[in-house]
Design brief:
alpha+beta, twelve-stranded antiparallel sheet, 7 helices, 16% helix, 35% strand, rod-shaped
């Protein structure tokens, strides 16, 4: 080949170094391009066929060497839809090919990129800085599970999030063995920590009223039990009614003067007394003929005070003392209060402890505040079992005899080890309505060990879990990508809904991908088919270029010197040719 061969080889060297310079130039130019992968240059020697003793160094060609598998630095950003991939893999993207009736049209081809500077466009698509649209797997909004295995262009809807009716409340707590209610703290007496059913129910007394005094019959003269100048005081629930007989002072308010003569008989006098007492109070003679005063209901207390002086006989059957039938403690502990009226709500609150409150939602998103209170209704110290009842404030606006609190569930009975016996996993609340808002069927989920009764020095219910699964309708606020690669939409009602899963594509030969404009790559036969994965995504971050400026400048110096050396070969070959031509002159 000689001089011409040397000249030709030198030219290939210049071309190879020029190719390397072009790559260095592109690397430096894209040193700030998000997700850029630099191109390195490999040199390949081309050896002509010759005898072993006549082989030459040969010419050279410059080849590109990709660095797709070399990761750039990951930088945090303030844009929540930005993403980076920590490790191998590429985002799956697709280019748009046009618009039709305001809708974006796509090519249907998959491309791959490390450029993760995605942002939401006006149509709800996630688009990166070079105009490629992110693809991923849709998520079922009901189950929050991936609902497809084929990546599709992700579009985030800005529609309202429909309300979800509450169907379940997770409710776990410990009830104190001794509830220190307000009534207990005021009294401290045994049994004062329990709910007194007789304060809220009309219970037929099982303890008879007591009577005393001599027996008088109804036809006896009225003077048999009363004489002029006698007085009698009857107190009903603390309100006194004072009677005087033949006093001549007339009736003023609750000071009543009764003339004996017109009544004629004992029955007549008793009827006159009864007519002046509060409605429902009964003055009569029992089967033994003794005179009794009976309350209007079991919770009333009647005190009778005979103020007779001298030798008169007022009090035949009306001796000093309290005359009201009572409810025994054993009977009261057997009763269950199903509802508490508004006028007795204060008494109920003083005899129960707070169990927490949670806001639930109807099917139309209307909120309702569910307030819960626990009342202990029996205990081993009172000869029974450790039993509780749960109440819900179903109408906070109730007045008078209107129902304010309603008992839900049955008796919660606890064994000596503090666990429910029988076990209680949940409590169903069918057709629940709170303050006029119809919630519907609701379940309190206690779990296998979420409801206990252990000793607590504070005497309060310690709620450990209280949450529910409903929410009101919400307006779209923002979208973000979390570190699990889930696209999360936030709404004004505080809900966050995962709508898609970002996938990454991995290749066995990532450096064999074909480079295209915009930092994207196309699969080739050499790269192999993509293997989809869902790991490695980092939210609110982007990957920087993997170009190292200092390294590129070093390459630039070496390339420049190699190019200069090549030009010397060309110059030397030219001079040798000139010398050869001069030989014939």
């Amino acid at each position: 080949m000689g001089i011409y061969g040397a000249l030709s080889t030198a030219v290939t060297g210049l071309r190879a170094q020029s190719f390397a310079l072009e790559n260095i130039s592109g690397n430096i130019a894209n040193s700030q391009t998000t997700g850029f992968k630099r191109i390195d240059t490999d040199f390949v020697d081309m050896i002509p066929d010759a005898a072993q003793k006549r082989q030459t160094a040969g010419s050279v060609l410059g080849y590109s060497r990709s660095t797709n598998n070399i990761q750039g630095d990951i930088k945090g950003t303030s844009t929540e839809t930005n993403m980076a991939i920590n490790g191998n893999g590429f985002f799956v993207v697709e280019p748009a090919i046009g618009m039709s009736d305001g809708d974006t049209l796509f090519s249907g081809a998959n491309y791959y990129t490390r450029r993760g500077d995605f942002e939401l466009d006006k149509n709800g698509y996630l688009v990166n800085g070079s105009g490629y649209y992110l693809k991923g797997l849709p998520i079922d909004p009901a189950t929050q599970n991936i609902s497809s295995s084929v990546p599709q262009v992700l579009q985030v809807s800005s529609s309202f999030l429909p309300a979800q009716q509450t169907s379940s409340i997770n409710y776990e707590l410990n009830l104190p063995q001794l509830p220190k209610t307000a009534a207990y703290q005021q009294s401290g007496a045994a049994g004062s920590e329990l709910l007194r059913a007789q304060n809220f129910l009309s219970i037929t007394p099982d303890t008879a009223a007591t009577t005393s005094g001599s027996t008088a019959v109804g036809t006896d003269p009225a003077s048999t039990i009363a004489s002029a100048g006698n007085t009698l005081s009857v107190s009903v629930n603390g309100v006194p009614v004072n009677f005087s007989f033949n006093g001549g002072s007339g009736t003023v308010g609750n000071d009543i003067d009764i003339s004996i003569a017109p009544t004629n008989t004992v029955d007549g006098l008793l009827a006159a007394i009864q007519s002046a007492l509060p409605a429902g109070t009964t003055v009569a003679r029992n089967s033994s003929g003794a005179i009794t005063v009976t309350a209007a209901n079991a919770t009333d207390t009647i005190a009778v005070n005979d103020n007779t002086t001298g030798s008169s006989s007022l009090g035949f059957g009306l001796a000093d003392g309290t005359y009201n039938p009572t409810v025994s403690a054993s009977l009261a502990l057997q009763q269950r209060v199903n509802t508490v009226s508004a006028d007795k709500a204060d008494a109920f609150i003083s005899q129960s402890i707070s169990g927490g409150a949670v806001t639930v939602y109807a099917g139309n998103g209307a909120p309702a505040n569910v307030q819960m209170r626990w009342a202990k209704v029996n205990s081993t110290a009172n000869g029974g079992a450790e039993r509780w009842n749960l109440f819900i404030l179903t109408n906070s606006q109730a007045t008078g005899s209107g129902t304010a609190w309603t008992r839900v569930g049955g008796d919660y009975t606890f064994g000596a080890d503090g666990s429910p016996n029988p076990p209680v996993d949940h409590t169903d609340l069918p057709g629940l309505t709170v303050n006029g808002v119809t919630i519907g069927d609701l379940r309190l989920q206690h779990g296998t060990s979420g409801l206990t009764q252990f000793s607590d020095p504070n005497g309060n219910a310690e709620v450990t879990t209280l949450n529910q699964n409903g929410y009101a309708a919400g307006e779209f606020v923002s979208v973000a990508v979390n570190d699990n690669g889930r696209v999360v939409v936030s709404y004004t009602n505080g809900q966050q809904l995962e709508v898609a899963q970002v996938v990454t594509a991995n290749f066995n030969a990532a450096n064999a991908l074909k480079r295209m404009d915009g930092g994207v790559f196309a699969a080739t036969s050499e790269s192999g088919e993509p293997l989809l994965d869902t790991s490695g995504v980092v939210g609110s971050a982007v990957e920087a270029s993997n170009t190292d400026i200092s390294e590129e400048f070093t390459k630039l110096i070496v390339t420049q010197q190699a190019y200069a050396a090549g030009t010397r070969i060309v110059s030397a070959a030219d001079q040798m040719l000139q010398e050869s031509l001069n030989m014939i002159r």
